[in-house]
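User: Hey, my collaborator sent me this sequence without any context and asked if I could get a structure. I don't really work with proteins. Can you help?
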Amino acid sequence: MLIALCSAKGAPGVTTSGLALALSWPRPVVLAELDPAGGDVLAGYGRGELSAGGLADLELAARRGGLAPHLDSQLLRLDPEGRARLLPGLADPAGARHVDWARLAATLASVEDGTVDAIADCGRLRAEHFPAAVVRRAAAVVLVTGSGLRTVRAATKAIAELRGGDGHVGMVATLVVGPGEPYGEREIGEALGVQVIGSLPRDAKAASVLSDGAPAGRLFAQSALLRAARTVANRLVEFAAAHETRLAPPPAPVPASATTIGGSRVR
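Assistant: No problem. I've predicted the 3D structure and written it out in structure-token form, which is a compact way to encode the shape of the chain:
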């Protein structure tokens, strides 16, 4: 199941939100850094101690037999158990023009035959080389927004764009970072006309662990940010799964001339 995260002008960090969700995800998951502006997790959360080719190397390897066979070799563990893994983003944003986003979307939508979910950090909507094909393929698209008037107004335009002609009507939701500054979830949902999947607090200490690699400390997992992320992650799994089921093609009809006897079909 593929879920796309993106943002509009002036929105708070999509990458930090995506990382918090991945670390809180109730099932095995891959966080794919697809922001065409480049990836930040290795230098931030990874403290520059992790290294992998990631998206750029995956694209090169795909020339020798497709993406799926090479995906696993480009993934890094985000947690000790390996339930959350990372596909690092581009080190050089110039490489975004060479990424086959449609082919990558198909691969992420079926990681390990669909037994592993994928969260795609797509960055800012309308950015040059924005991975629109990934957004179109996603079971759910989540727009990350703040709660101030400026960011909500920008989010309104972004929602209209996401729902305009790409087949995502009813599949778009929003995630609020810093609710109550000054608007709450209900007011934002009414203004945007989409479901608010939840909110993440402005927890500066915990966020610095994810964005800048600050020491986690033994209480990091119980921080306000991670607690909220667990709630949002569970809601998002249910939301995306419902729409993925709705979008699944119907089973092929059994020909009228076919009859089943003792579990075997005869004509």
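In plain terms: The first helix runs from residue 14 to 24. You can pass these tokens on to your collaborator as they are.
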